[in-house]
């Protein structure tokens, strides 16, 4: 891989900063709100069902998550949920959209070392405005040549991104916490992929089997990438 990599793309949520813990906290609040209708773990299962059903319509991010909570609440209450509870669900979403940005360890130091030697970009899913807000508040904006907020991270989405960047797959390295979204499609295209595990992963992004591929690297933390370049 040495000398081949020209562009390095970073996933954002749970790679540059924490995200999933905020969603899990929000989900717990939601499950507690509805425990008069169903046990909390069943509310959580119902919410996940709604999210999977709507993913192709809403994509990823807080706004879709809020709509899914409202839809789930309506379904499990047989459309009897008090408006006050809907208000509280909306507030859960508003809180999520105002969470502080907590950079993960080693992020700034690693970007500092890479800057100038590579074209650095962010490749993330999520709501456009929210991801822009997080990037701005992260203080990292200045490191990146390009920010791509993607509706999905399938092979075809990365193909489009590479085309836009005028970058060949063999000159492209992606770093991220999701094997499914950040690693597999990039490897399929012939790029390089480095996995930085995060301690919690959304059920939809979970991937069990250990990945073996000549272009794949398993890192302990983001700074470990420096020893491969
Ligand atoms: Mg991520």
Automatic annotation (TrEMBL):
Pfam families associated with the record: Hydrolase (PF00702)
Sample GO molecular function, one term: hydrolase activity
Protein species of origin: Chryseobacterium taichungense
Domain of life: Bacteria
UniProt xrefs under InterPro entries: HAD-like_sf, HAD_sf, PGP-like_dom2, S-2-haloacid_dehalogenase
Sorted UniProt keywords: Hydrolase
Upper taxonomic lineage: Bacteria, Pseudomonadati, Bacteroidota, Flavobacteriia, Flavobacteriales
Protein name as annotated: Putative hydrolase of the HAD superfamily
């Amino acid at each position: 891989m040495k000398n081949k990599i020209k562009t390095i793309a970073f996933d954002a949520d749970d790679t540059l900063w924490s995200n999933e813990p905020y969603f899990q906290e929000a989900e717990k609040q939601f499950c507690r709100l509805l425990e008069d209708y169903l046990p909390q773990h069943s509310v959580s299962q119902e919410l996940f069902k709604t999210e999977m059903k709507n993913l192709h319509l809403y994509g990823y991010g807080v706004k879709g998550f809020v709509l899914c909570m409202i839809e789930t609440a309506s379904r499990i209450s047989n459309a009897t949920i008090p408006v006050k509870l809907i208000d509280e669900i909306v507030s859960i979403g508003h809180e999520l959209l105002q969470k502080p940005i907590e950079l993960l360890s080693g992020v700034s130091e690693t970007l500092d070392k890479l800057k100038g030697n590579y074209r650095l970009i962010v490749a993330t899913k999520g709501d456009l405005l929210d991801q822009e807000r997080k990037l701005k508040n992260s203080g990292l904006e200045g490191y990146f040549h390009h920010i791509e907020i993607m509706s999905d991270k399938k092979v075809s989405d990365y193909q489009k991104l590479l085309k836009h960047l005028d970058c060949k797959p063999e000159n492209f390295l992606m770093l991220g916490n999701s094997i499914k979204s950040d690693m597999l499609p990039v490897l399929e295209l012939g790029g390089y992929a480095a996995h930085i595990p995060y301690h919690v992963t959304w059920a939809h992004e979970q991937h069990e089997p250990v990945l073996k591929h000549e272009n794949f690297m398993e890192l302990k933390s983001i700074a470990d990438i420096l020893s491969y370049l």
